[in-house]
Amino acid sequence: MVGTTRAVFILDFRTPKIHLWSGSYDAPLVPISGQPLLDRLVNACSENGIEDVALVENLSSGISERFCLQDSTNTLSWRDAHHSDLIERLRDHEGDTLLIWGTPLFDSEVLDGIDTDSGLRASAWRPDAPTGIYRLSADVLRNFLPESHGAASDVRSQTLSTLAVGLSGLEMALPADELNAGSELLDIRDGVDASIAEFRCDKENLLRRLETSVGGYWRKPIAEHMLLCNTRFPPTAFYDRLATRLEGVLTCYPSQQIDIVSVVGAMTSQQPDFIAVGNGVTDLIQALYSVLNPTIAIPTPTFAGFQTPLDEERKNNFVLAPPYFDLDVRAFLEFATATGADTAIVVNPNNPTGRLVDYADVAWLAEALGSRGRRLIVDESFIDFPADGRSNSVENLVQSCGNLIVVKSLGKVFGLGGIRLAYLLAGDPALVAAVRRKLPLWNINGIAEYTLFLLPEFAEELEDSLRLLRKDRELFIQELQTVPGLDVVPSQTNFILCRLPENSVSAAELKRRLVLFESVLVRECGYQAMDDADRYLRLTVRSRAENERLAKTLRRTLSHSSTVSETNV
């Protein structure tokens, strides 16, 4: 029919099969939540009103016998793609042609954003196989096709290669930096891609899956502003060096505590007997608590990892006052004493506020608590991010202050959250030994161990990354301050706490909308012990482009949410 749009799939059965635990599949037939990928894509075309669908195979795969389409779909499987009439079949259409090269995962809404004679390429773009979607007018498609003469095999090869060249010169409908993480095309080539596709297709449970399983974002297509790692480090050269010993690192058991604490001791200029290493700070907290069985006093809002392991009667929250949530150490000392807590905890700089307590105040607090027979645990996981942060570290006091314990995550400053590496410092070797006994025998993996040896080679790059990140943070703060009604807490770290406008939806509802409609994930603070917790978001400083995009999204979303009630969405 003249003027109608048809869809033509160019299917490549020469590529390696996708191997899953359930079996091996050609890419077009890999199951995504129990449904063949190609079936999903044809259905997406149908939802967009495209009923004229054709499948062009570069091999005689017999797909028409293995692949069932909806009865309403008028489909022609061109298994005679070896023959010279392929070109004439492609020419014989007067409307637009949606040329879908390969099987890139897409939703029907994506097709609306592709104008005539433009395209949208998949994230795994290859010049020799332009996986993507291209809307071509009849004239442009004909110009891309060769003359229909020559041997059948030559015609097939020439047709596809000539099309590929023509497609490579098309303008893209949307630049890559304008696509959110849930709308970009995905070229499915392996089991990880199939897992990503299943995540994207499970829209009904998307928010629940993100809330019940934190992490693993390398295989979850979401723009994540939640985890708190240095996005400027490490450089590519670090990964190149890591690869040189990867085989040995992965095939051998890692070292035990006694070896790894020696390396951390050299890094921190501390005696190894003062150090325990853990699979992240939470690993060390659990081990430490099992030794101390503490009753704690802790300023809130703060990192929940210190509170979660304890029963309610063993934790006392010292609620910090807005707008900046700065800690008054003298008032906190009196609170800890009055509540009967035997252990006080300070996260410095604090998470989620990004506020730093001066060295003199923390040192005073440690001494004052010690004189009253109480311990102080200081979490310095973010101490490297402020320009003067390291000068405010109290690691140098652990030997002289027997009641002081310092814990620190290394994954955050080094931008390597996946290595799960942290250490504990205390001037009490007996306590440290007791903590070590509570930890698994091989609790640090080989890649984390090897990383400790590589990091000194990149000391200059680390300092450069921190300087750049501080500039990124200030620019991000400036962007956020342009969001009407949004109150921004000045931060000294790689994350920023914001209070939502009074007339906006709650932080939990905003998070839901950002996930479902923008493919953006943020941390809402409703779980925190603080006044108006449901009005606060914590945003991670990422690349400047990502930060600008999030600020733009917040301006648009909050402007809309102030006029629409939660019950209407």
Number of spatially distinct domains: 3
Indicate the low-confidence ranges by residue numbers.
67-83, 565-569
CATH superfamily of the largest domain: Type I PLP-dependent aspartate aminotransferase-like (Major domain)
Using the alpha-carbon principal axes, give the shape.
Answer: elongated
**Coarse structural class:** alpha/beta
Q: What do the pLDDT scores average to?
A: 88
- Name the helicity range: 25-40%
Strand order of the largest sheet: 7-6-1-8-11-10-12
Number of helices: 19
CATH topology of the largest domain: Aspartate Aminotransferase, domain 2
CATH class of the largest domain: Alpha Beta
Largest sheet: 7 strands, mixed
Q: Separation of termini?
A: 39 Å
Number of strands: 25
**CATH architecture descriptor name of the largest domain:** 3-Layer(aba) Sandwich
Strand content: 15-25%
CA radius of gyration is 29 Å
